[in-house]
Design goal:
764 residues; five-stranded antiparallel beta sheet; 19 helices; 31% helix; binds beta-D-glucopyranose
């Protein structure tokens, strides 16, 4: 296979405005959902002379770190869970003459970097100068295989520029806890020092390790293989590795390649007990193969990804590149083993401890559900695997029934140290149910619904029945959900957050929607679900209180939101953003200032019954009081703006949102990508500019392209079919690519897309 180089799929260093080293480490990360490797100075290793934050992250591989509370109340989480930062597999030691990169400080200057998103390969050139002034070019190519998720490949090329001399290459990874010089003064960053243990497995013919965690009791095996010309050896400190020494000639390049095989995560006892067995399986993956063949196999999988998931935008090359980077990064981060999903920072850093949040279900999964449904399913199954913990958590916290999913977690247990902006975001329960329903609506996957989905829908609905209660409001019996935090984290522990109640209403209704098909089944017996319980849920959904301010004609963010102090954001000193880093939470909670889209989110997730004037009124009230300090916010406002025909604003918000990481617009991409924001940008295109609304009866498309764009093209799946849409200013072209087709409402009229008539050209 030969893949033509295409600059439209390349993140070339020259194209990036910022060249800040830690930002580049994130942008040039490579990953495959199992592992993520930050970019780095390859000579750094654990040497404190070099300052960077490198590391290898394995999805789901974490350790516990005790929380220290001033006042610890019952049931606060004892521990944080933080994804481990393992040694940098890019690290290499180079000795030129008698100068050693591990001892002396070599000057490493980046000449060029290019990430090819078609193949997933990162290509870099460094100019390295030794303290005595010997210069050589170091060329590094690396990738994380999408074909064989355990495999990571790296190839080094060395070209002396101004000398002939002995050069020795040593590749020994003799430490496992990657040190960084990170000092966090940001609540969103974890700078814990790792506690993993590294044990060499001897006599395997290639360096092999058992890596275990101290408290979480996990273990994984890791091994790596070198190209033939390197010698396997044991160093003075008994660490196995590879080395070779040769006489390097000016201008002549010599290459060395390595394939890592990074194992799956096991409970520690198993990892110890079956280490040999796991190791031989890992050896298999890198035996009789080489860098190029593994890269090609992986590139082929990338090709398939792009075939189904690419978004083509005509006339806006900057946005085009950003959206591709976003989709590429999402795919690099997506957990593929049903035991993991996507951390808020992908696998590019340990910001937010590497936790999974609602970001996955609400902002990232729609992209996968529509374009890579099999992958979406795997990530939803991860939630199912934490259902038992969520059930336990609900009872531990004092509820009689239902599942209380963690607000932020890796292993299923909640890890939020600050519950008002953490555990209190009970909307996570309905967010998961929402993503399940959406997956089902798109795929019609009955097996998933019966094996996993419905159980979660029922248990999350039970949660709301337990958490909420009835109260008299404005002369009516209402179902209320008090003391929750909605999406907006500048308001906490409020009563009847509009978004939460709307989501809960939906969640409760879902139980009845599917009840009949599960009547008298093993599942309903297991769930002990009676007609009476279902009726109560439906009644509560019907009686759900959704606060509304009649005078202002707005959906009210929460019950007494309009009593909070008003603040004119234009008067706030711009150096005080993001506000969470400058103000005590109570100063924010008492005001009408929003961090992110909240009420607007429910308009976006539930576009059925869309009311132009109502959305406009909500938008005009909430947008001016929103700081967009959360990167999840702008894309949502872009969708709302498109729907109410504020086209210039829609494009402005969207283009800012789509650039979150490539332009480092939140100034913290150094800590890792903003995976939720990247997914939200896809939603901005799909739900916003393409105007997709999918409800059980109809799939509708009502495009409204930004004037900057000539065309928009994307594919998606619906039931058994795949479609391609090409949208121009006044024309929609629909093509059925596979499957039976379906009825759709396109730009206001009905069409039947069928095998017989697989293509329609519609003027609008
Ligand atoms: C946002 C949350 C989000 C979290 C992780 C916070 O800043 O307010 O909505 O879930 O970041 O991305």
């Amino acid at each position: 296979m030969r893949i033509e180089q295409n600059p439209e799929f390349q993140i070339h260093l020259q194209k990036l405005q910022s060249k800040e080293p830690l930002f580049l480490e994130t942008i040039y990360s490579v990953g495959n959902g199992h592992i993520g490797v930050r970019d780095s100075n390859p000579l750094q290793g654990n040497n404190p002379n070099y300052v960077g934050t490198p590391g290898l992250f394995v999805n789901g591989f974490y350790d516990y770190y005790p929380y220290k509370y001033g006042e610890k109340y019952p049931n606060y989480p004892e521990n944080n869970q933080v994804i481990n930062r393992l040694f940098d597999p890019r690290f290499i030691r180079i000795i030129v003459g008698d100068e050693d990169s591990a001892v002396d400080s070599f000057d490493v200057e980046t000449v060029d970097k290019n990430l090819d998103m078609q193949t997933g390969m990162l290509h870099e050139i460094f100019a390295v100068t030794t303290p005595e002034g010997k210069i050589f070019n170091l060329i590094v190519q690396s990738f994380a295989s999408l074909q064989e998720l355990n495999v990571y490949g790296i190839r080094y090329g060395i070209v002396p520029v101004n000398f002939d001399d002995n050069v020795e290459i040593i590749k020994v990874h003799d430490y496992v806890n990657q040190a960084t010089n990170q000092v966090a003064n940001d609540v969103r960053v974890d700078d814990v020092k790792g506690n993993m243990q590294l044990d060499f497995i001897d006599d395997n013919g290639q360096p092999s390790y058992l890596i275990t965690t101290y408290k979480s009791q996990q273990g994984l095996i890791l091994t790596f293989q070198a190209s033939e010309q390197m010698d396997y050896f044991k160093d003075d400190t008994n660490h196995w590795g590879y080395r070779t020494k040769y006489f390097a000639k000016k201008g002549t390049q010599k290459e060395f390649e390595f394939l890592f095989s990074i194992g799956d995560i096991h409970p520690l006892v198993n990892a110890r007990m079956y280490a040999d067995q796991y190791l031989s399986a890992l050896n298999e993956k890198v035996r009789d193969t080489n860098f190029d063949s593994e890269l090609m196999a992986s590139a082929q999988v990338w090709q398939t990804f792009w075939l189904h998931s690419d978004v083509k935008i005509g006339g806006d090359p900057e946005v085009q590149l950003c959206i591709r980077f976003n989709l590429f990064s999402l795919n690099q981060s997506a957990g593929r083993n049903e035991m993991t999903t996507i951390p808020a920072k992908g696998l590019t850093g340990n910001g937010y401890g590497g936790h999974y949040f609602w970001d996955t279900e609400i902002f990232m999964l729609p992209f996968f559900t529509y374009t890579q449904p099999e992958l979406a399913k795997k990530m939803l199954i991860y939630r199912y695997h934490t259902l038992d913990i969520a059930l336990k958590q609900a009872t531990q916290l004092g509820l009689k029934k239902g599942a209380w999913f963690a607000w932020q977690t890796i292993n299923g247990y909640d890890a939020s140290a600050y519950w008002p902006a953490g555990l209190a975001q009970v909307h996570i329960n309905a967010d998961i149910a929402f993503a399940i329903e959406q997956y089902y609506e798109v795929t019609g996957d009955d097996e998933f619904l019966s094996n996993y989905g419905y159980e979660i829908i029922v248990e999350t609905a039970r949660f709301f029945m337990e958490y909420g209660n009835y109260a008299d409001i404005e002369g009516k019996r209402r179902f209320v959900i008090d003391r929750v935090t909605g999406p907006d984290e500048y308001s906490a522990v409020v009563d009847n957050n509009y978004f939460t109640n709307h989501m809960a209403k939906f969640n409760l209704r879902m139980v009845a929607k599917y009840a009949e098909r599960f009547e008298n089944t093993e599942l309903s017996r297991k769930l002990n679900l009676s007609a009476e319980e279902i009726d109560k849920m439906t009644q509560a959904a019907n009686d759900m209180y959704l606060p509304f301010d009649k005078e202002k004609n707005i959906k009210l963010q929460y019950q007494n939101f309009n009593q909070m102090a008003e603040v004119n954001l234009k008067n706030v000193d711009t150096s005080k953003f993001p506000m969470l880093l400058h103000f005590h939470p109570l100063m924010l909670y008492r005001t009408q200032v929003n961090k992110q889209a909240d009420v607007i989110m429910s308009d976006i997730l539930f576009p059925q019954g869309f009311d132009f004037e109502q959305l406009k009124s909500n938008y005009e009230f909430y947008e001016p009081i929103t700081t967009h300090d959360s990167s999840l916010s702008k894309a949502m406002f872009a969708i709302a703006a498109t729907r109410i025909h504020k086209d210039a604003e829609a494009y402005r918000f969207f283009s800012q949102a789509v650039q979150t990481d490539l332009q480092n617009s939140h100034h913290n991409t150094a800590n890792g990508i903003h995976a939720g924001s990247l997914g939200a940008a896809w939603e901005g295109i799909f739900y916003g500019f393409a105007g997709v609304v999918n409800n059980a009866e109809y799939f509708t498309v009502n495009p409204r392209l930004p004037e900057q764009w000539n065309s928009l093209q994307f594919r998606f799946h619906l039931y058994d079919s795949e479609y391609r849409f090409t949208i121009y200013e006044h024309e929609i072209i629909v093509e059925l690519l596979s499957g039976k087709g379906t009825k759709m409402k396109l730009a206001g009229s009905d069409y039947n897309i069928t095998k017989e008539e697989p293509k329609q050209e519609i003027k609008y």
